[in-house]
TrEMBL record:
It is an enzyme of class 2 (transferase). The keyword Transferase applies. Its EC number is 2.7.1.49, 2.7.4.7. Keywords: Kinase, Thiamine biosynthesis, Transferase. Residues 12-256 form the Pyridoxamine kinase/Phosphomethylpyrimidine kinase domain. One of its GO terms (molecular function) is phosphomethylpyrimidine kinase activity. PANTHER family: HYDROXYMETHYLPYRIMIDINE_PHOSPHOMETHYLPYRIMIDINE KINASE THI20-RELATED (PTHR20858:SF17), PHOSPHOMETHYLPYRIMIDINE KINASE (PTHR20858). This is Hydroxymethylpyrimidine/phosphomethylpyrimidine kinase. InterPro entries: HMP/HMP-P_kinase_dom (IPR004399), PM/HMP-P_kinase-1 (IPR013749), Ribokinase-like (IPR029056).
Length: 265
């Protein structure tokens, strides 16, 4: 029986980030992908132009349409721009007893454009963190969620600890893409810190890297991996996607969702 994964997120018409990146990643990892759209975003590799949020009732209707027909084995959320979208997603995750849930707390696109309102940041903390199996903030997102200023590896670990022990998420993966030095990420699972390392590649092709990474972890959780295994697989997928650039787009290009085929050949 094929495993199924659902992404609840915003769109990217150029296919590098958001829903499109998530579905490509699910497909590459052999998992049946499903999607609920929260916001339609006009963006490309040069930046975000504007976006239109789906009404909360329509987000609810899409989630019901999925769950009343095909139950996903794991769920990922990405762009949720406002408190009402967050509230309806939280309500539905509880109603459908979702136990494998990866929360990518998308806040600002790599181009610098805000994808979430200030009020919604508080809702992410209060309503979504307690439901999630894993939260995957980059450094600015970890700072926004915890109030810390993150300058050292110890600060990254402290952010993970706060997210788990004070805000109630089961595990936190603090991503080091925005850190100096190597691209090392730190997972705190409530008992130990695990480091997932990669060499930093000198590339501008990282548009959608956070989405792709979280989607790969979600796909592996849907397949029955433990959390540690899922993150290990996800890290290897995103590293291959960054290290085999496609050289498309006039700005910060997309990661390569076929990259793992080249790396594992
Ligand atoms: N230049 C790079 N070389 C290798 N890995 C990278 C690079 N930039 C980001 N990564 C990795 O890609 C993943 C996404 O990271 P990050 O950039 O922090 O997230 P986001 O896309 O949400 O801002 C992380 O595993 C990070 O370590
Ligand atoms: C719809 C949507 N969701 C998320 C991102 C963030 O992308 P990145 O992973 O590059 O920060 C994006 N640009 N668009």
């Amino acid at each position: 029986m094929v495993s199924k994964a659902l992404t609840i997120a915003g769109t990217d018409p150029t296919g590098g980030a958001g829903i499109q990146a998530d579905l490509k990643t699910f497909q590459e990892l052999g998992v049946f992908g499903m999607s609920v759209i929260t916001s339609v975003v006009s963006q490309n590799t040069l930046g975000v132009r504007s976006f239109v949020d789906m009404h909360e009732e329509f987000i609810e209707s899409q989630i019901d349409a999925v769950f009343e027909d095909i139950r996903p084995d794991a769920v990922k959320t990405g762009m949720l721009s406002n408190p009402s979208a967050i509230a309806i997603v939280a309500k539905k995750l509880k109603e459908y007893n979702v136990s494998q849930y990866v929360l990518d707390p998308v806040m600002v696109a790599s181009s610098g454009h805000e994808l979430i309102s200030q009020e919604a940041r508080q809702s992410v903390k209060e309503e979504l963190l307690p439901l999630a199996t894993l939260v995957t903030p980059n450094l600015p997102e970890a700072e926004a969620l915890t109030g810390l200023t993150i300058e050292t590896i110890e600060d990254m670990k402290e952010a993970g600890r706060i997210l788990v022990e004070e805000y109630g998420v089961k595990a936190a993966l603090i991503k080091g893409g925005h850190y100096k030095g190597e691209a090392d990420d730190y997972l705190y699972n409530g008992t130990e810190f695990l480091k997932f390392s990669a060499k930093r590649f000198d590339t501008k092709h990282t548009h959608g890297s956070g989405c792709t990474y979280a989607a790969a972890i979600t796909a592996r959780l849907a397949e029955g991996d433990s959390l540690n295994q899922a993150v290990e697989h996800g890290k290897s997928f995103i590293t291959s996607a960054i290290s085999n650039p496609l050289e498309i787009g006039k700005g910060q290009g997309p990661t390569n969702h076929w990259g793992h085929r080249l790396t594992t050949k």
